[in-house]
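Quick start: what a row looks like.
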Amino acid sequence: MSGIKTDPDGPIRIGGRSLADQLAQRTHVLVAETVHAVRTDVPFYRSLPEEAIRNDVTAIVRRNLELFIAMLRSAREPNPGEVAELRDSAGRRAEELVPLAEVLHAYHLGIQHWWAAISELATEGDGQALARAGRQLHTYLLAATSAVVAGYGSDHGSAGDDDAARRALLMALSAGSDPAGTADRVGLTLARLYWVAAIHVDPHPDESAAEVDTAVAERRKVRRLQRELDNVGRDKALCAVTSSGGTALIPIVDSDPAEDNWEGSPQYAQLRRNLLDLERAIGAAVVVAVSAAAPSRVPGALQEAREVLEVARCHGHRSGLFRLRDVPVEYQLTRPSAAHAVLANLLSPLDAQEPILRTLEAFVDAGYDRAAAAAALHVHPNTVLYRLRKLATLTGLDVSSPRDLVRVTAALAARRSGTTAT
């Protein structure tokens, strides 16, 4: 649009009342009806998760209607700032690989539905007002269409350049290959220290829903994860994530903490809160292993974080944030050594005793609490007690003995490590 145009005849009145007021009073109903029409008549939207319809689609339909009502009140075209939210929403749909034609189809359906609602309000003698309303609705559709196309097109060029720069710096830091030179080349500032995070994300429930497109659900989860990590890193996080997790380097911008004394710092406490909140934002269980390192030490810290993440998951943790100090015994017991196979073989009599092995795992993971293990297994505590006694019969290891309890824990860690490796 070349400029903001106003209607010289002022706000539109239909049936003797302000059209803007009448539509505003029906906002909730019109939004619900429009969302239903889009989901019913646009093929791609039928494959979207319920969460996407309930949140993203409903929110943008409401925003469109509110903008059109504001346009009716002011008797002028919407300005670029007012349609920026439409452009940003379209950009997110582009990231999720939603076809542009489907998004435009949804907009046209919405406009058709609003026109039908406006027509129903008209009475005899409202022909001229209806014609003006039609022109304004068409003008709004042009503005909205331009915003959507911009969201799918050139308006994301600078963001794409920034993403490429961050990916290049992430690769250089992860590999230890001249990160300072790479930072200069791509125009980014190398941080004094980085939080180094290895992340695992469980599948979102939408990914297994029969009526939902799995690829769409995965892309939405990745976008939410990327957005949350960007928020934690104040738009400076270096991330490589997929639907199952990935890695993130988050710059530490403060002068504290020190590289070798970060675990008790306020900065780590804040990071911990932010990372633990990922699970709520993503809607799926998240396990994170974290460390801190100067640029030159990122490769080693990243390898350690990945190993800590593997150990935490191997030992039954399905969510939470872990440092090496949180799993030092389990970590050490999974390192290769001459005793590794010997320890693992202590439990070989359980190879054909799946219920007893699962019970032992639940017992150890529950901190040697029989009641908690029973709850995790959905069995009676007496069943756990019976199976642990059977364990003693089969292996000679009695978990009521402190000495045998240590050996059982070590043997299970070694066995799990071997299972993970294969």
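That is the whole record. The mean pLDDT is 85. Residues 41 and 109 are 8 Å apart (CA to CA).
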